[in-house]
Amino acid sequence: MERKTGILFQRMSKFFPALKLKLKQAGMDDRPEEFIKKTFVSAVYMTIGLLTAIFLLIAKIGLFKPVFLLFLPIIFLVMFSYMLKLPDSKILKKEKEVAREIVFVGRFIIIELESGVPLYNAMTNVSKNFGVTGKYFKEVVDKIDLGTSMEDALNEAVEFVPSNDLRRILWQIINSIRTGSDIAKSLYSVIENITKDQITEINKYGKKLNPLAMFYMMVAVILPSLGVTMLIILSSFIKFELSLTILMVLAGALAIIQLMFISLVKFSRPAAEF
Prior knowledge:
CATH topology of the largest domain: Receptor-associated Protein
Helix content: over 70%
Order of helices and strands: HHHHHHHHHHH
Strand content: under 5%
CATH architecture of the largest domain: Up-down Bundle
Radius of gyration: 27 Å
Largest sheet: none
Number of helices: 11
Number of strands: 0
CATH class of the largest domain: Mainly Alpha
């Protein structure tokens, strides 16, 4: 039975050909079939837990109907698809972490090379002085120490790094090694382009904040305050009982809106630092 289950998940992994690369870029050691199995089992547990809570609530109200069981596969597929995006979220997180250091890393390498430090030593110094980006350079240095040529080690790193900006720097180093050109001068132009891209992202973020702030003022400040005031006034005219439960529900909804707004602003914020 276990063997048949393993074959099933191996076949399922073929429907996600990019999953192996994503797992590597996300720093996850699972094989594609192992990750799909874990995701499948977790989705089953989450679906059962969610449906149990929903059924208990519906049964308490007295609206339980067998037709609700039809939502079981839909909820499972939603949970499975959502959890299957875990590598993408980790890749995005790592990409933002690298973006905070990438300009400093590029300038550090340029200064090292212009000071006469060999490329190998420059990458070693990067691995010691930078936390997030340094890990990827340490992997390159370790492979070189084990006998891999510098070009091959950099080519392997290009495939698995989660940041496009870091990939651009590594590609430029590889091209400079192949052509024999000055690595420092080549990197300088790449760093300038990365800096310009980050400045553009910051400007876009600044323009995006204005409508977000307006949305926050309308939905999270003006509407709740005026809405509660109007409800209190109307309740006295139409004999509507504004109980503590209703007020607590309104407060909970307002808290959810606040959290959603904070998450949206935090997610939209560029990771660039200068």
